[in-house]
Amino acid sequence: MKLEKSPQKNPEARARRAFRSGRWKVGAQILEEQLRSNGEDFAKWNLIGDLKFRAGEREAALTLWRRALDGYMQEALHENALGVARKVVRMIPEEVDVYLSISEAYVGLEYYADAISAFRTFIKLNKSSSPSERKNWFRKLLSCDVKHLHLIEEVQHILVESHLEDIELERDVKRWAEQMSNVNDVIEIETESESFEPISISTQEASMEDEMGLATLGESPSEFNSSFAMSSYDTRDEQAETKYSYNDDHDFEVPSEKSEEPLPEGQGKDHYDLGVVYAEMKLWDAAMTEFQTARRDQSVRGKATIELALCFKNANDPHRALRLLEEESALGQYESSIQDDIAYELGVLHQLVGNTSDAIEYLTQVGHQSARYADAAHRLAELKAQ
After folding, report:
1. Which phi and psi (to 5°) does residue 227 adopt?
2. Domain ranges, ordered by start, for the chain
């Protein structure tokens, strides 16, 4: 008998069974035990932080989220760090110092407009920030290649407003601004009134914390309050989105699909089931990880792909969901029911982003036998009436 392969000895399997049966505290304890042997698993720090927050343990959650955030920043995993940091300021708004981490993550991703906006928010809300923290931010930015003239000018304005009284830094910033203006093909954007407002992050979710006691954790996932948005991610300011054309892929932590060996048939079901549980709890990052793993099992790949796309959509990235489903649809390897579901979700996503003709094309592909047919027909009628 190979006891080492028994699911009773497998912490991951025990944790999944605990979550599926609603024993969230037990599952969290199992994950915490694993961290004792691998303290570098920052995704687990983040996940346990989510569970602690859901249990009403704000301070414990904050400690865990900060450990994950610090780890991701040290490893230069800026997308992941950004996801955790934005979650912290949504759930615990008084932690204003985290805006500095948001800004530094954006610097690492080379999204300088967002970085400057977040830094402005940091110095405005965190009156007790130290001069060294602010000076370090400027020093980091001086190593960056900024091509927008108005952003270069904005950095100079912020330095003046910071009253750091550092002659050497002022000289370096001035030299950097001149160099950026001379070396680069500087892009000047004309606007009637250009201003950087503090990042606005909704605190509605954080106000739900009083309803998230340990008793709630014992309920089945379907009974969770559906308005409690536990996503680690948040869209950037719409104004910034319009002005600056950035890659869609930076807003939240997404597990990359590595070239890993396929899972034996049936082994992906546990990951799929756990992903569904996490999705019902609105723990999008954890759900994405499970669905990505489940996709390696061909027997559940289709369903897992659809669920993964829905996670992207719910995490405010419909374009990524579209890319995923369009690639999967092109394979044409699924039975008609799965193909119908993929076509339906593609139609809904195209409708969401305003691609009317594409939405009509995909919704028309939904077969009469599909459970989605009635809604697809209703959406088609609405789209054709426009």
Report:
1. -85, 0
2. 3-183
